[in-house]
Every structure is written in structure tokens, then in C-alpha cells.
Task: inverse folding
């Protein structure tokens, strides 16, 4: 055993490989668990049972769906751009995996600690819109193209309030290092309890919902108008990658909210924030946030496109700008 | 400008109310059942195919006197009623009563016209088959099986 540990410690390449395998495992497990919970919550809100047939309470359903998806043929439409069509799902999935590397899950559990972690995560997150555009355009299908266009407009509009609201936290801590931001909240007061940062938190949640293309902002998919939007033409595992990336993005969104506003791996009042308990605190906060997003998703109907744009440009962006100004003043004075 | 803030207030309030509604639905018990294993009682007014009403105090177990009104009145021509005279029995005795359910429009005229009130709608709704002949029901046999 000791020899194995020593071996792993010596070969950093092997360590990276191991970490990467764990990471992919976490992303897949997250998609399976969240997919199952999503279906269950949707069912309970509509007062149905949801998946019940395979396994206790239907917990095997998502795994069986995954197997079904794997066994399907990957069809490329006749006039599609083959190279880009194949590339898009990978381009959607890879940034998710890359962001997971930089998330500080606890004091000592993280892939890498970058001193520009926040910028790195946001940069990676915005590749997502690129992949949706490529998927929609290369499918050579008008519905896919519509979905992709909507997605680009939506993401450009909502990236601004996200950045502005996160900038308020950066102004308060004056660092982009995620570990440092979490450490700054190790006292009894998390950033969400400051009034100005609470506003930033709410803005971040709304805009994050739109950024991950989830209902009520799921216009790129809008199944009632665009069949399935940008992934209409995808089948088999390519479609599976889009679905997994969606839940991965949800996880990332929730974990950034946790890190920036809810104290990351800190327990309440700095209670039990060791390396192991920290990870448990972090994951439970992330899960609560994700469940809230699902609750929101199954409550509201999809917004119209003009309503979507109104919300971003007329409400979220002015509010986050004013909020940023107030934060800057407060930081300067105190 | 005042409209701007009041819009945020009323909008935000109604969004929260919406969340409350779904949360209450979430904790309420489930109303659907897992169908083939659990069933809920069907409404007594459901219209399945027609059947002869069972009456135990008559020897034939039904009250049909083979007047043929139901067959004549049926707009879809899907009822066949036949009877014969038998020794020592007053009137005719029913020998054939079939309904072709593939043609029946569930209009209810047969049930309405029967002067003996010998017919009614059954409450059978789980009907599926591979051939049309499976829906040619022999109502006398059905009555005996019951
Ligand atoms: S319900 Fe109407 S169509 Fe059906 S058997 Fe009776 S009379 Fe004929
Ligand atoms: S109308 Fe009534 S009594 Fe007459 S044949 Fe039909 S079921 Fe029998």
C-alpha cells in the first residue's frame, strides 16, 4: 500500500490521470443523480410518482437510460458539416470537465489552485455558448439554427449581470483566488448576509439560471417551438454528452454561487470546516442550490424572448451596475 | 419610474406565490396510481360495451323477451338477437345475443329502448385484442360466466 502511495506521489502524470478519471466519474455521477432527482421533483410537483419501475423508487432508471443512449447509432444528417457536427458535443463537455479541476471543494480537495480561478472558470463557462452555436449551425436544420441564435443572444445578455454581480464579491475580497474568497468568509458572516452582496446573489442566481439554459429560460431548447433546439439532430451518446454537460453546468453554477456567496466549504459560524467536513458542507450547499433551481424550473412557464431580453437589459444589468457602485463605495469607506 | 419599481415588487411577489404553490403541491400526496398494478374504481356512468343485466330470480338469469327492439333500433346494426319457442315456456327463449363492439357507437339506444330494462352498459374498459373477432361478444355466455 505504502509503495503504491509512494509510486503515485512520485509520478505526477499518473496522479493527474487518476484525478482526471475521478473528475469524469463525478461529472457522470452528478448527471445521473441530478437527472433522477429532476424527474422525481418534477413528478412530485405535478403530483405524479415519476420513475418507479426499475429498482427501489426507480433509482436505476437513469442508468438504464444511459445504457439505451449508448447503444444507439450516431446519425449525422446528410448535408451537415460532419466535422463540426462531431466536434460540438465534445466542445460542450470538455469545458465542464476543465472547470471542475479548479473548484475548491474543500480546504485540501481541489484539482489546481489558480490565483485567477474565477476568471478561468468564467472563461471556460463561456465556451458553452460557442458549442451550442456550432451544434445548431452544423446540423443544417432550421430549428437547430434558431435555437443556436437564441442561445447566443441570451448568453451575451446574461453574461454581463453574472460578471457584474461576481465583481462585487471580488471588490470586497480584492482577489480572484477562489480559496482566498472562501477563506475570507470563514467568520460567522457569509457574503450573502451583506445587503449589497445579497442583491448580487439574487442577480447571480437569476442570470445563472439563464446562462445554463434551464427553464424558465430554456429558449434554445424550447421543445414546443423548436422540437429540441440546438440538439434536435443529435442521437446516441452525442446527445448524452449534451445532457451530461447541462447538469455539469448546473453544478458549476451552483458551486460558484456557494463559493462566492455561501461560504464555500465553511460550516455555519466556521463550525467543523476541516478538509473532510468542508467537502460535505460544500456539496450539501451545492445540492440545496441545485434542488432550488429545479423547484424554480418546474414552477415557472418559459418566458417569451422579448421578456427575456427585457429582464436582462432593463432590470438585471442596471441593478448589478448600481450594486457594484455601492459596493465600491462601501469598500472604499470601510 | 414609479411603475418600474412597482413592477418589480408585484412581479417578485407573484413569483414567490408561484413557488409557494408548487411547494405545497410537492408535499401533498401523489394522486396518480401505478396503473396495471393498482386501479382506481371507474365512474358508474362509464360506457363499456352493453351487457345483459343479471337477475337471479328468473331461471334464464336475464329478463330479455326476444322482442328484437334493441337490434332493430341499433343504428350500427351490431346486435344480433335470436330466440326460439320451447315446450312449456311462455314466449320465446333467447338463444343468441351477440354484439359486434367494433361497430358499436355507444349511443345507448339499445339500453333506452329495451322495454324490459334487460340491458345496460358494462364498466369494462381494459379491452385489447389482436383480431376483430375478439370484439364480437356473446352476451349470453358472458352472463353465464359471471
Ligand atoms: S349502444 Fe348504440 S350502437 Fe351500440 S349496440 Fe346499442 S344501439 Fe347499437
Ligand atoms: S329490447 Fe330488451 S327485451 Fe327486447 S330483445 Fe333487446 S334486450 Fe331483449
Result:
Amino acid at each position: 500500500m505504502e509503495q503504491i502511495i509512494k509510486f503515485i506521489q512520485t509520478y505526477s502524470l499518473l496522479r493527474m490521470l487518476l484525478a482526471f478519471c475521478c473528475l469524469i466519474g463525478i461529472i457522470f455521477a452528478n448527471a445521473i443523480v441530478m437527472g433522477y432527482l429532476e424527474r422525481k421533483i418534477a413528478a412530485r410537483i405535478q403530483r405524479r410518482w415519476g420513475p418507479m419501475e426499475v429498482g427501489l423508487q426507480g433509482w436505476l432508471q437513469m442508468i438504464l437510460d444511459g445504457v439505451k443512449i449508448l447503444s444507439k447509432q450516431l446519425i449525422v444528417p446528410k448535408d451537415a458539416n460532419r466535422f463540426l457536427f462531431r466536434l460540438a458535443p465534445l466542445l460542450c463537455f470538455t469545458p465542464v470537465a476543465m472547470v471542475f479541476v479548479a473548484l475548491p471543494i474543500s480546504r485540501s480537495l481541489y484539482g489546481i489552485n489558480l490565483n485567477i480561478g474565477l476568471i478561468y472558470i468564467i472563461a471556460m463557462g463561456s465556451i458553452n455558448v460557442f458549442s451550442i452555436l456550432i451544434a445548431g449551425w452544423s446540423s443544417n436544420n432550421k430549428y437547430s439554427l434558431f435555437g443556436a441564435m437564441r442561445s447566443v443572444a441570451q448568453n451575451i445578455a446574461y453574461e454581463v449581470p453574472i460578471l457584474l454581480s461576481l465583481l462585487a464579491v471580488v471588490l470586497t475580497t480584492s482577489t480572484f483566488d477562489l480559496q482566498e474568497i472562501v477563506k475570507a468568509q470563514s467568520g460567522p458572516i457569509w457574503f450573502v448576509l451583506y445587503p449589497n452582496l445579497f442583491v448580487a446573489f439574487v442577480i447571480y442566481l437569476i442570470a445563472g439560471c439563464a446562462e445554463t439554459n434551464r427553464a424558465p429560460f430554456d429558449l434554445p431548447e424550447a421543445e414546443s417551438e423548436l422540437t429540441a433546439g440546438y440538439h434536435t439532430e443529435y442521437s446516441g451518446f452525442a446527445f448524452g454528452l449534451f445532457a451530461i454537460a447541462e447538469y455539469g453546468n448546473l453544478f458549476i453554477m451552483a458551486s460558484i454561487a456557494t463559493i462566492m456567496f455561501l461560504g464555500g466549504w465553511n460550516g455555519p459560524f466556521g463550525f467543523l470546516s476541516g478538509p473532510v467536513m468542508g467537502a460535505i458542507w460544500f456539496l450539501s450547499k451545492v445540492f440545496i442550490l441545485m434542488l432550488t433551481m429545479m423547484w424554480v424550473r418546474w414552477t415557472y412557464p418559459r418566458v417569451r424572448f422579448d421578456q427575456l431580453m427585457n429582464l436582462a437589459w432593463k432590470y438585471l444589468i442596471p441593478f448589478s451596475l448600481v450594486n457594484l457602485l455601492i459596493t465600491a463605495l462601501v469598500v472604499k469607506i470601510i | 419610474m414609479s411603475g418600474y419599481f412597482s413592477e418589480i415588487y408585484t412581479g417578485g411577489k407573484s413569483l414567490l406565490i408561484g413557488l409557494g404553490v408548487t411547494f405545497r403541491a410537492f408535499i401533498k400526496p401523489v394522486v396518480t396510481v401505478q396503473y396495471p398494478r393498482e386501479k382506481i374504481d371507474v365512474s358508474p356512468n362509464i360506457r363499456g360495451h352493453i351487457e345483459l343485466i343479471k337477475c337471479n330470480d328468473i331461471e334464464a338469469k336475464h329478463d330479455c323477451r326476444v322482442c328484437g327492439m334493441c337490434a332493430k333500433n341499433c343504428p350500427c346494426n351490431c346486435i344480433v338477437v335470436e330466440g326460439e319457442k320451447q315446450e312449456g315456456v311462455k314466449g320465446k327463449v333467447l338463444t343468441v345475443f351477440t354484439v359486434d363492439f367494433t361497430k358499436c357507437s355507444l349511443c345507448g339506444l339499445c339500453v333506452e329502448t329495451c322495454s324490459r330494462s334487460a340491458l345496460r352498459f358494462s364498466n369494462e374498459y381494459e379491452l385489447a385484442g389482436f383480431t376483430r373477432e375478439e370484439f364480437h361478444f356473446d352476451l349470453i355466455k358472458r352472463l353465464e360466466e359471471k
The mean pLDDT of chain B is 84.
